[in-house]
Amino acid sequence: MKRAKLLVLAAVLVALGPLAAHADRGALTLGIGPALTWWPSHAPPVGSGPGVSGTAFGGIGGLRYALSNNVELSATGFYEAPASYTFPGVSLTSGGTPLNGTLEATISRWGVLAGARYVTGLVWRLHVGAEVGWSHQSATKLDLLNVSNPGNPQSYGLGIPNTNENAFVLAPLLGVEWLLADHWTVALVPRVEIALGSVTQVALVVPLTVGYSFYLR
């Protein structure tokens, strides 16, 4: 009977071995996947006016290295595909003449971040942390429309040049990771990205990533 119990205990430990190993110090995890970004108030890239809400799709990828069973360092890159936005109530000046109307623009963004997170759990793992870094936003196809006749808006024909803006980014994050199989994980770790550029903007980024872990120790 005692021998049988020992065999059962050994079998359980073998079965749990891969789960425990995932949280071990020295794990290097590569993760990649799609991401949805929601802007509750996206400011116009030129002129002044109220921000508009909108969404953008893109991708996110990165590396995490476990300094200990619970502390990981991370490096992340992200990309938001071009998305069309319409900004009503925009004011700008052209040739000394103030103009008002609706601005149309196609906006994309990419950037790199680095940070740290606290991780706890085996099969289901909680992630809490933050990253800081840099983002680059590009706005193209800019056009200000005269909407004094709402049924027939007309372009002012200003030929507004493309814009590019860099910003410092702070991104606190909180989410969960599921150990799908030995070495393989699926993670949903939303982050709030606070971009500090000419205008402070806040975005909610929801990435769904698949990760593979290498054990370096």
Description of the structure:
- The protein has 1 helix and 10 strands, in the order αββββββββββ.
- The chain is mainly β.
- The chain starts with a helix and ends with a strand.
- About 8% of the residues have low confidence.
Record field, number of beta strands: 10
Tell me the radius of gyration: 24 Å
In terms of DSSP E residues, the strand content is over 45%
Number of domains: 1
Largest sheet: 10 strands, antiparallel
* Mean of pLDDT: 89
Q: Distance between termini?
A: 38 Å
- The number of helices is 1
Sequence of secondary-structure elements: HEEEEEEEEEE
Which percent range fits the helix content?
under 10%
Spans where pLDDT lies below 50 across 5 or more residues: 5-22
